Each structure stands twice: as structure tokens, then as C-alpha cells.
Automatic annotation (TrEMBL):
Gene Ontology biological process: glycoprotein metabolic process
Protein name: OGA GlcNAcase
Lineage, top ranks: Eukaryota, Metazoa, Chordata, Craniata, Vertebrata
InterPro entries on file: Glycosyl_Hydrolase_84
GO MF annotation list: beta-N-acetylglucosaminidase activity
Length: 347
């Protein structure tokens, strides 16, 4: 059964109309303060005001812990509450869990910005596009502009106890280095690495090489189960990819590589190398002018919770928007029905 402390947390999240409980107040206070003081993150440890950076990181750790506790509360409610109570409360707690996953990852991403200070632009969504209560206030604090579709996903008919962790990719992250090997073997993304583990991913290789600072990882209890990758300036990124990264990959993995490893499957190897030796489609200049940033998202087939997908999209869009992006686009093959369906469900 739920403990007294967990019941207290649940009550404080949904306290009174226009009045939050202590837990909800702490979450909002931390989030507002961390947003307002994010410029102190890049302060050098030797600087006179280095204490500001330490205070920011300390409060960021507290905020991330509070978010994790609330996400665990959602898992505990699904596993321990009676059916009637669960189906009454689950949609509301599920909403808060999803937005806290994105908020926690966004704050962790702010903590990684040590070179350029993010520009936290105010959201300009219409007031009626927002929910009420704690969820609505958290929604208003995420700089995602008019991406309100992501906040209106219906809860699953069958609540899941799966616990998710969403965070930015770290420079020392083993997941980023061997995505082409172990970590992506169960991702339903048509990745060629299933056949050739050492070829960088066609969907992620260029992002990890040229723009790793906008990559987020979603993990469940079995390991990495999703990713969101982005590029702030797609025009420059595409030029770098086509003039530098792709030629390097073609030199490293020539067309005749498949002939030397018949045991791995000839057809699969040819498919794996196709991406590197095919000229990518050009993006029209009007698209790049109106939507300057490029995004790519993917989820494992085992991840059925649409809320986790929305959280991935929210944290990536928040990071891009915080650094000034006015719009995003993604590239999907017209024959890839799975990816088309995935993006359509995000709204």
C-alpha cells in the first residue's frame, strides 16, 4: 500500500484551487529560480562570484530529486492504489509526471551550458491553450512557445508502472559512444547497426558528431529506450554533414565493405551502407528560413507510453527555443510509415 508520506505528496500536488501544497510550491519555486538564475551556471570556479554557480547547481540537484520523487509516486500509485482511486487520479498525476520529466531534463541541460548562456525567451502561447493547477504553471515555465499539442495527449487506457528517466546526453556517456552497438539493438528505428554494429547510426551519427549538445536520452528499467536529437542551425549543420561528415563515413565504410563480411548478411549490410553512399535530399531554403532548427526523435518498440514521447519532444524543443530557435522541422522518408505515424501522434 501507499505510505503516509506518499499520500501526503499526492495531496500536496493537488491541494486546493488556486493554492498549492508545499511540494508543489517547492517545485515551482525551484523551477522559477533556476530559470531566472541560469546565467550563473557558466561562472568559472575561480571567479569572484563562483558561489552563485554552486548555489545554482545545488538547487538544480534538489529540483531533479523532487521531480524523481514525483515520478516514483506515479509508479507507486499505479501499483498500489485501488482501481477506483487509480482511474480517478491517474490522468492528473500522469500529466504532471510527463511535464516534470521534461522540466527535469531541461534544468539538467541548462547545467551543461558552460560556453554560451541560454536566452530564455518567454512563451507566447494563448492563455486558453494552458491547463490549470500545477501542470499549467509548469507548462507556462517551459519555453516551448505554441507547442500546446504536446500537452494534450490522452492518458493510456491501461496505466503502466514503468519508471522513466529523461536526461541530456553527457560527454562521458557510454550510451553515446556505443549507440551503434549494444544500446540500440532493440530500437525499432530500422537502424543498420543490427547487421553492422560498428557503423555509426544513420539517424544519430551526424547529430552525435556535429551537435551533441542537443541530444536527450530516455531510459526505462531495461536501459535506453528513446532519444531526441536536434540542431540549432540546420543550414550550417547540413552543410557540415554533406561536406565533411558524409565523405569521412564513405571513406571509412566503402561500398564493397559488405563483400568482406558475408556472415553478417549481404542484404542487411548493403542497407546499412546505403545511407552513407546516397546523396541526401536538399532542404528548400524557405523551409530553413522559417524553421531554422532540425530535430529527430525515436522510441523503442517496447515503449508504449505516449507521455514519454511527448516529454522527449518537450525537453528538446525547450532547449532549442531557449537558445533562440523560432521553429523546427524533421526529415522523414515518405515510405517510413512507422516514423510518420510516430510524429503524427505527437501533434
Amino acid at each position: 500500500p501507499l505510505t503516509l508520506g506518499e499520500v501526503r505528496m499526492l495531496v500536496e500536488l493537488f491541494y486546493l484551487p488556486y493554492h498549492h501544497g508545499p511540494l508543489a510550491q517547492h517545485l515551482l519555486e525551484h523551477f522559477r529560480w533556476l530559470r531566472a538564475n541560469s546565467l550563473s551556471v557558466g561562472v568559472s570556479a575561480a571567479a569572484p562570484d563562483a558561489g552563485a554557480g554552486r548555489r545554482w547547481r545545488c538547487r538544480a540537484q534538489s529540483f531533479v530529486r523532487l521531480c524523481a520523487q514525483t515520478c516514483r509516486l506515479h509508479t507507486r500509485l499505479v501499483g498500489a492504489a485501488g482501481q477506483a482511486l487509480l482511474y480517478d487520479l491517474h490522468p492528473y498525476l500522469w500529466d504532471i509526471r510527463n511535464v516534470l520529466l521534461a522540466a527535469s531534463a531541461f534544468i539538467q541541460w541548462l547545467g551543461c551550458q558552460s560556453i554560451t548562456a541560454p536566452i530564455l525567451l518567454q512563451g507566447d502561447a494563448e492563455p486558453w491553450a494552458r491547463h490549470g493547477g500545477l501542470f499549467g504553471e509548469l507548462q507556462a515555465l517551459l519555453p516551448v512557445r505554441n507547442s500546446s499539442d504536446l500537452f494534450y495527449q490522452p492518458p493510456p487506457l491501461f496505466p503502466s508502472r514503468q519508471l522513466y528517466v529523461l536526461r541530456p546526453l553527457r560527454p562521458w556517456d557510454q550510451w553515446g559512444r556505443d549507440w551503434a552497438g549494444r544500446a540500440s539493438t532493440d530500437l525499432d528505428l530500422t537502424l543498420p547497426e543490427r547487421a553492422l554494429p560498428h557503423v555509426p547510426g544513420e539517424l544519430l551519427g551526424s547529430f552525435l558528431s556535429l551537435s551533441p549538445e542537443y541530444t536527450f536520452v530516455l531510459e526505462d528499467e531495461a536501459g535506453p529506450c528513446g532519444y531526441a536529437a536536434g540542431v540549432l542551425c540546420a543550414e550550417g549543420f547540413l552543410q557540415q554533414r554533406d561536406s565533411g561528415w558524409l565523405p569521412a563515413m564513405r571513406h571509412k565504410y566503402p561500398r564493397d565493405l559488405a563483400a568482406g563480411a558475408p556472415a553478417l548478411g549481404q542484404d542487411a549490410l548493403e542497407e546499412a551502407l546505403l545511407f552513407f553512399h546516397t546523396e541526401p535530399a536538399a532542404v528548400p531554403l524557405p523551409v530553413l528560413r522559417r524553421f531554422p532548427s532540425l530535430v529527430q526523435l525515436g522510441m523503442a518498440a517496447r515503449t508504449l507510453d505516449a507521455g514519454a514521447s511527448c516529454s522527449l519532444a518537450l525537453c528538446l524543443l525547450s532547449a532549442l527555443r531557449a537558445n533562440g530557435s523560432q521553429g523546427v522541422f524533421c526529415q522523414v522518408s515518405a515510405t517510413n510509415q512507422q516514423q510518420l505515424s510516430f510524429y503524427s501522434k505527437l501533434g
